[in-house]
Amino acid sequence: MTTTEQRRPMIEADGLSKFYGPFAAARDVNFSVLQGELVAFLGPNGAGKSTTMKMLTGYIAPSEGEARIAGHNMMDDRIEGSRHLGYLPESGPLYMEMTPSGMLDFFAEARGLVGAKKRDRVEAVVEICDLSSVMYKPISKLSKGFKQRVGMSQALLHDPDVLILDEPTAGLDPNQIRGVRKTMRKLAETKTILLSTHILQEVEAMANRVVMINEGRLVYDGDVNGLREHGNDDLDQAFHQLTQFDT
Predict the structure, then answer these.
(1) Is the pLDDT of residue 22 over 70?
(2) 6: Cβ–Cβ under 8 A, 6 or more apart, which residues?
(3) Burial code of 66-86, b = ≥16 C-beta within 10 A, e = fewer?
(4) pTM (global) more than 0.85
(5) What is the spatial distance between Cα 243 and Cα 209, in angstroms, rounded to a whole number?
(6) What burial class does residue 90 get, using C-beta atoms within 10 Å of its C-beta: 0-12 exposed, 13-18 middle, 19+ buried?
(7) Domain of 73: which CATH number?
(8) Which residues form the ABC transporter domain (predicted)?
């Protein structure tokens, strides 16, 4: 088994800040996610989670600091870093007039997958995301749960080492959430995952570790048990204690 000392950082936020005029959406955020970890990224709405994730993926440039994926600076070497990265934003990139089959074929070709390799990867993500029953239905006709699965499937298509997922269970019903959690646990066996959420039950169900920000600043980085200590063994109370100055 790989020890913590042997695992390399796969996601690194090194002093990340993002300023919009005088407003700081994120300020001096520092943390890293080691190979094989599933880390929950917590914070209230407007805390800077999505902004930080967009900087980590290279989607937006930081005002200060550096984001690295598998050791690659996501501003200077984004293409190589992106080869290691699967990113699912809060509102995933879906083409509603397409079917899942057509969309996966399109994204596979865009990523340079051809022939047997393309076929194998499409089959793999269809199985992982349990899409076989809806492959030829228009995406616009699918439930929100299936739309989330389609978004996840395109993020997994190139078999990345790293997944950054922004609120993947937002708006889903309990059965759909259960399905996403099952998928996350399966993926965590082979991937490094940073999962943004504000649902504390997801932290207990899936995460090895918690990183929390509030008002753009890091306020906690540690395990779930350590987080409980901030709220007398109550995660809801701990969340409140660490973020209450936001209200």
Answers:
(1) yes
(2) none
(3) ebbbbebbbeeebeebbebbb
(4) yes
(5) 18
(6) middle
(7) 3.40.50.300
(8) 11-240
